[in-house]
Design goal:
The protein is α/β, with parallel strands linked by helices. The chain has one domain (about 25-160): 3-Layer(aba) Sandwich (Rossmann fold), CATH 3.40.50. Helix content is about 20%, strand content about 30%.
């Protein structure tokens, strides 16, 4: 249970946060809808969810519990070279998949699509390993920021291009444990 109202900022981090972008309650409701959609779409072909660490871990953990199918999960960790709050597009694989994905129905679970460069790289990398199908489920999509055209099958929320934290999203590894999504106004 949360101990604050929808429109409240958690006190311990309030000095670094601006607006509430998505409240915990809105997140939980939307994640359940995405899970229901995936349950319906993948009924005949249970999916392999690939979470992109570390940002997608909270979303992945909530999402998988709302899918009423026998899903498998795996994780990749990628890191993007460059400044703290912008993707450079040069992606380095820090942790590769544990299992083969050939012939599997893969859903890449991402926290946020900003420039789209990370996702573009992952799509090419995973696509080359012959999955039976490859779709993306992104919790957040930053409007107007894309440098690479993307087809995203499942999108949680479209947001303005502010830098946001919480629900897995960090600033220099901090603030991932906030239960909602908030605008970051502090110093990175
Ligand atoms: P892209 O390659 O520009 O699409 O950036 C994607 C990655 O950048 C995400 O997976 C996040 O790790 C990070 N990122 C982009 N925007 C934000 C943000 O507002 N807050 C926290 N991380 C972000």
């Amino acid at each position: 249970m949360t101990d604050h109202r929808d429109d409240e900022i958690p006190q311990w981090a309030a000095h670094e946060l601006g607006r509430v972008i998505i409240s915990p309650q809105e997140l939980h409701a939307r994640v359940a809808q995405l899970g229901a959609e995936i349950t319906r779409d993948y009924a005949s072909r249970p999916p392999l969810l690939i979470g992109v660490l570390k940002g997608a871990m909270v979303f992945m953990s909530d999402l998988m519990k709302t899918i009423e199918l026998p899903v498998d999960i795996d994780f990749m960790a990628v890191s993007s070279y460059g400044a703290a709050t912008k993707s450079s597009g040069v992606v380095r694989i820090v942790k590769d998949l544990d299992a083969e994905i050939a012939g599997r129905h893969v859903i890449v679970v991402e926290d946020i699509v900003d420039s789209g460069l990370t996702l573009n790289y992952l799509r090419q990398y995973l696509g080359a390993r012959s999955p039976a199908s490859l779709e993306v489920c992104a919790l957040l999509f930053k409007e107007g920021e894309q440098r690479v055209e993307q087809t995203i099958r499942y999108t949680g929320f479209r947001i303005q291009p502010d830098f946001v934290v919480g629900y897995g999203l960090d600033v220099n590894e901090r603030l991932r444990n906030l239960d909602g999504i908030y605008e970051f106004t502090g110093t990175p």
